[in-house]
Amino acid sequence: MDREGYRTPGQMIKALMTQRSWTQRVLAIILGMDETAIGHITGNRRPVTAEIAIALGEVFGVPAEDFLALQKEYDLAKARITALPDPGRATRAHLYGGLPIREMIKRGWIEADDIHDVSRVETALVRFFGVGSPDQIEILPHATKKTDTFAPVTPAQLAWIYRAREIASEMMAARYSPSAVRTAVAHLGELLIAPEEARKVPRILAEHGIRYVIVETLSKAKVDGLCLWLNDASPVIGMSLRYDRIDNFWFVLRHELEHVLRRHGQSAVMLDTELEGERAGIGTGIAEEERVANEAASEFCVPRKTIDRFIARKAPFFNERDILGVANTLHIHPGLVAGQLQHRTGRYDLFRKHLASIRFAVLPNAMVDGWGDVAPVGL
Questions:
Q1: What is the third-level CATH fold of 3-82?
Q2: Which of 95, 116, 287, 291 has fewest C-beta within 10 Å?
Q3: Distances (CA, A) of 208 to 136, 202, 227, 266
Q4: Average pLDDT over residues 363-368
Q5: Which residue would you say has higher pLDDT here, 39 or 88?
Q6: In the chain, where are the structural domains located?
Q7: How far is CA 150 from CA 58, 153, 253, 372, in A?
């Protein structure tokens, strides 16, 4: 018997009984069930369970799956009649299933006491993303330009971008000009001698037209830095300082400065993630914007010719005296030489003690959001 001709399992059972001239009492006796129960099933007042479907299948020679399929279709049809539509359900899945809302609340990025207070959370998210309603929050299509095409960022990375931009939009900075930034780069080069000198970075950047913000990364975001522009006229550099090392700090900062100098990030945010290992390369296989930024950053930390000659002369054996000698000649901290040597050789165990901490010097002098502090924005 074709079940597609019936809308309910009860209708199908009645038809099968009629074919055999059976009454409900006969079927009840065959199945070992109460006659009233059979009446409830054929009247669709009691659902056909898996056990009953198997028994009916044995009696009528019909696959048990047919009875269950009809029962499922019938249950869904009833539910659609009685269930109230909730257009916000899909929006909540979009937001709660993607954004790190609990962490955003904890960090003070959105004003909500409880993640279960959906109305307040959605109101806070609307304000955070600057949209008119929750369903306008696009957490996945936002993109960063990594190649000639646009690649999506993760929801956590997007939230980090918006936070950095929100903070930067309320900061003050001098008028930007490319020549001013080149001057700033020259000044910054004088600070490579000691970790403490990094305290001057925020002031130098602001004086030369760059808004500089430090936002602690979110869990699993793996963000190192970004370059974006406000109104195509005011560049912003954001950093996470997720690696508290002098070599990483100066590499990422100079990387973002090169993006600024080349006006990268005006059509889409330049988000830099995991700027170590292969991503720090200067050869082929990465986007051109990233290649030139990596090249400038490496050259800034330790000139390429210098590190090439050093490796050619000393490999495969390097000693601390040689590292200190190169650093002294270049008037830079030995941690920068150690960092470049590690990257070039893949020997990340070398001279780790010279990779000095940097946050202690930078954070007290910068606009910071994270490590227990919430940037005073939107007040």
A1: 434 Repressor (Amino-terminal Domain) (1.10.260)
A2: 116
A3: 36, 10, 15, 18
A4: 96
A5: 39
A6: 3-82, 88-136, 143-369
A7: 59, 10, 23, 34
